[in-house]
Amino acid sequence: MKLACLQLLLVAFQATLITMSSAGLQYNFYSSSCPSAEDIVRNKVNGMIDADKSTAAALIRVLFHDCFVNQLIASFAAKNLSADDLVSLSGAHSIGTARCSGFTNRLYPTVDPSLDAAYATQLKAACPSGGPDNAVNNSPVSPDALSNQYYRNALGGRVLFTSDAALMTRNDTAAAVSDAADATGWMARFAASLVKMAAVEVLTGAQGEIRRLCNATNS
């Protein structure tokens, strides 16, 4: 599965270069200066995922973060991203982990009624009120496999975040979740939406910076 995750990210990155070539990016940019660049990246990332399974989820998270669905839909509409893109991208929560502090608002002081009761009990055991900020798998089923299991979790009330549960509160996104739960083509839609996400307001030339730490600017 680690290879599939990596290949998806590489395909998305390559497609982004094609999409954004008119804005200063160029597909196959390193073909002359470093023709083995993609193999080097692939081998390096494979090694990182072998050492730490959370790396696949972390790489995807570099491109987007969690926030409320309605806010995302409003901002995605301005960035040529649709509600369907949001639903497809949310499937990334089929892998990775989250800290208790990211979702205990759904457990305390009262349990969010949209949570499956048995799942809520399981989460309370992992995240007791006032307890340590433990890490919990994003998905209670096959947490290391990027798949459409996330949508089956959402339909059953077994998702962690408020943003995940919010997908079921709108008719359009709820219908898309139901469709994705059974669709064999979800991975292709996820890749296409990831490409669109990666292509939003790309900085080129002297506009950006190569960060020393991914989660903070250099200055």
Automatic annotation (TrEMBL):
Disulfide bonds join C100-C127. Binds 1 heme b (iron(II)-protoporphyrin IX) group per subunit. GO terms for biological process: hydrogen peroxide catabolic process; response to oxidative stress. GO terms for cellular component: extracellular region. Its cofactor is Ca(2+); heme b. InterPro entries: Haem_peroxidase (IPR002016), Haem_peroxidase_sf (IPR010255), Peroxidase_pln (IPR000823), Peroxidases_AS (IPR019794), Peroxidases_heam-ligand_BS (IPR019793). Heme b binds at H93. Residues 1-218 form the Plant heme peroxidase family profile domain. Keywords: Calcium, Disulfide bond, Glycoprotein, Heme, Hydrogen peroxide, Iron, Metal-binding, Oxidoreductase, Peroxidase, Secreted, Signal. It is found in: Secreted. GO terms for molecular function: heme binding; lactoperoxidase activity; metal ion binding. It catalyses: 2 a phenolic donor + H2O2 = 2 a phenolic radical donor + 2 H2O. The keyword Coiled coil does not apply. Residues 1-23 form the signal peptide. Gene3D superfamilies: 1.10.520.10, Peroxidase, domain 2. Its main location: secreted. Belongs to the peroxidase family. Ascorbate peroxidase subfamily. This is peroxidase. It comes from Eragrostis curvula (weeping love grass).
